[in-house]
């Protein structure tokens, strides 16, 4: 697919030209998130570059830029940060294509390493200024897709929808089934946020249909998961469990599905099954050191399974989310605790947590406000 | 008296109640470092395929 250049470079074809072609293939593999293909192409390009004493500056700059994107794909943020420092000093050597890639990767970096979404959007929009210089439509569509994902994370559903639609249009023209499935999922998720549940359901089935045309297991897992999320949110727990079970059959360690299975079994008061998913979920969170989700599992456990620890678990959990400024979680859980105190006649405590709910809501509004 | 207080608190916060949905797990508005992918929906992105971090060459 990426036109690897194993058979070039020794005959009549100029080595520089071979390097340029291999760089282009590597670029596409990185942007397509094809990790193993990107690994192979990196080996090729490293070997090719080691045989050349002199290459143009632009080739080296492009190599470093793509290596930056490659490290992001691999999740190696430490090295990516080092390269970013160097690249930031070399922007005067960039042509328009390199500017596009620089801002695109930098946006991804902000998004992937630490979810700095405002910064990510700023970079993606800078990259958008250079799309006319990008010959490959799927790369431009990927920029739109990633911009749409960040708007979705920020619950800017209208913006997200617009960008994902643009990506969907391009991917459909190219017939890129995997990406079409991804776009359908995101359109469906945006519809869910906007309470357009029928359309969300239709989109998730389209996503599943597209995913089933591919061999991509992760994609199918995500489609099943989203259907489970949709039905769970409608309190159709049995239907939710059916789809979530399909998701974890394909990818048992997908903890988002584990969490939803835990929650849906709790709702049905099937506590034995709920506990199975609780145990799996916290094990996974500990393995990947995911403190936020570990606390979410514990909060749900205290709500449904060990209510004797309800107050202490909630107080600790809310303190953690307050400290880490996760205002949606502060909002979500402080109102549950406030309601609990109200129901038990503890008025002062109830007021304290209602106040906290209002404060968290205010923080969310501030973060969304025009700057 | 205690019941009255409770009723007053409840009434005063009625607007707040209206905004709350138990099933609305729309978490992530933050723009600060160090947080995991936090919305409940699934969609393809490099981070969605993360399992146990690989041993990467330094």
UniProtKB/TrEMBL annotation, chain B:
Region described as Disordered: spans on this chain: 28-58
Keyword Signal appears in the UniProt entry: yes
Residue ranges with Basic and acidic residues bias: 29-40
Name of this protein: Phr family secreted Rap phosphatase inhibitor
Keywords: Signal
Signal sequence residues: 1-22
The keyword Signal appears for this protein: yes
